[in-house]
From TrEMBL:
Keywords linked to the UniProt accession: Carbohydrate metabolism, Hydrolase
The protein, known as: Glucosamine-6-phosphate deaminase
Repeat listed as a keyword: no
GO cellular component: cytoplasm
InterPro entries reported for this sequence: Glc/Gal-6P_isomerase, Glucosamine6P_isomerase, NagB/RpiA_transferase-like
Molecular-function GO terms, alphabetical: glucosamine-6-phosphate deaminase activity; identical protein binding
Pfam families associated with the record: Glucosamine_iso
Glucosamine/galactosamine-6-phosphate isomerase domain location: 15-230
A single GO BP: glucosamine catabolic process
Coiled coil: none
Length: 249
């Protein structure tokens, strides 16, 4: 099996968050104009807490450009949007702001135009880091099962399991939950110099098994990352619980 991506096995969510933070902190401290593209949701919450602490204790982000992987289609200030998450968990909590903040506008009337606008941002700011979470169905961003591995930023429809994850994460009912989002495709995701995939918890264990031991197939979108040497997967014990011993060695 070809596997070039790097795997880091850690004990729990806290250790996963710390490892992720160490990598990002190093990039912020060493690059002249670091460009960091984040994800939102349960997986990176701990990492954001550490980043807030870091920035408020002197980690200098004045030259850092921040952006995001995706955005739900819906009102900008809805509880579930990437915009809301980023302000509540990061921008409103730090005592100094990054050089630039880019977000996809999920309430834009013309989605095509918004995609093209963000494409220009992506072209202007090659990413040093792209942070990712893993869907229970193996999705990456909103690249759901069946998405071709050469996808580029597009308007995606969510699978049912993704809608359920959003309901769970933001404590909302099905009729309030978004069903579409604009997401980077694998092409832009893998263009980042470092891609960090954060995976924690039992509910991710099957997706992790498919990612590391299954066929490379669009049935498990995350397998698009397997033979890429710029990808670092940080996996905790619960998420790794279905893996063969050989894989963990
Ligand atoms: P989570 O979601 O980080 O909230 O578990 C990951 C994902 O579905 O992409």
């Amino acid at each position: 099996m070809i596997k070039k991506m790097k795997t880091i096995f850690v004990k729990n969510y806290e250790e996963m968050s710390e490892k992720g933070y160490e990598i990002i902190k190093d990039v912020i401290e060493t690059k002249e104009q670091p460009v960091i593209s984040m994800t939102t949701g349960g997986s990176p919450r701990g990492l954001f807490t550490l980043l807030v602490e870091g920035v408020n204790n002197g980690l200098d982000i004045s030259n850092t450009v921040m952006m995001n992987l995706d955005e739900y289609i819906g009102p900008k200030n809805a509880v579930y949007t990437v915009n809301t998450f980023m302000y509540e968990n990061f921008y409103n909590k730090i005592n100094t702001q990054p050089k630039e903040i880019f977000l996809i506008n999920g309430e834009a009337d013309n989605k095509e135009e918004e995609i093209n606008r963000y494409k220009e941002v992506l072209n202007a700011y090659p990413r040093d880091v792209q942070v990712l979470g893993l869907g229970t169905n193996g999705h990456i961003g909103a690249n759901e099962p069946g998405t071709p591995f050469d996808s580029t930023i597009f308007l995606a429809e969510h699978d049912d399991s993704t809608i359920e994850s959003t309901m769970r994460e933001y404590n909302i009912e099905r009729d309030e939950a978004p069903t579409e989002m604009i997401t980077l495709g694998f092409t832009e995701i893998l263009e980042a110099e470092k891609v960090i995939l954060l995976v924690s918890g039992k509910r991710k264990s099957e997706a992790v098994k498919n990612l590391l031991e299954g066929e490379v197939s669009t049935d498990c979108p995350a397998t698009a990352l397997r033979d890429k040497d710029n990808v670092i997967v940080i996996i905790d014990e619960e998420a790794a619980s279905l893996l063969d011993e050989e894989t963990i060695k």
